[in-house]
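Hey, I'm writing a tutorial for new members on how sequence and structure tokens pair up, and I'd like a real worked example in the thread rather than a made-up one. If someone can provide the structure for the chain below, I'll link this post from the tutorial.
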Amino acid sequence: MKKVITFILALLPLALCAQVRVVSAPKQEAPVVKYDSLNNVPGSQITGMVGQELFLPPLPDHLKKYGYQDLHRKADSYIGSIPFDEIAGHTFKIVSVERDGDIGRYYKIKLEDTQTGTNYFYTYNTVLSSWEFITLGYKAKYEELNKGKSFVALCYSLGKDLNTGQYVSGQIRGSVWVFQEIIASQDNGEIGYLYSNDKGQSVVVDERSLKDMRPKAEIDNLRKKYGSRMCDTALEGTVKIGMPADLVIIAKGHPKRVNSASYGSQWVYGEYGDDCIYFENGKVTGWN
């Protein structure tokens, strides 16, 4: 009897182990955020882009030999690149979007080449906002809203004339341009916004400089509200005493920060708290 009890006790740990269930945490799915077609770079809306089509612009000449380094043939691959000639200028459909690892800002996007049917994988970082593509839904929406409309340049340079290759000269700031279409810029392989003027010149504005192209209708409304003289001063990039805040934005852009004070407010444009403009009752009282 003692031997039987000893034998049963010896088997008991094995029986207990056999009863322990092994479970894994459920896979955390990324919440789907609706894509509104108003941004080329999707950011947090990437999870809502399944089914969207993307155009892959050609690389600049000096980068073609390296290929597309952020695109891969396998979902778990981060090494190597896709040769330029294989996919440059192709259109891709987003098949799926999944979180890539435990850090929420990384997503793995499965793409299908609409010309060949081949699948590729692209890792997207929503924090860095780097985006290789032109989102065709965005292109269609932007052109629908802006094609044929006039814009006023609030910068001092617009680069080269697409027709002649010569730099656009003369008074650029305050000049009027008509938006034509979104294109792939051959110079840098990025999205470009094509504008033309009544002199037959055409320029491509990149996404970073798009803020310098303001709708002419907006400028016309400011001219009616504040008068042509004050508005022309702002279009020249000059701030003067008594200028309203709306026109200071036209003259200098938005400040880096705004400080409130008993006398009014301080707009700070400099990196180190310098280049400040002071307001009282919404109008400029001074600067330093």
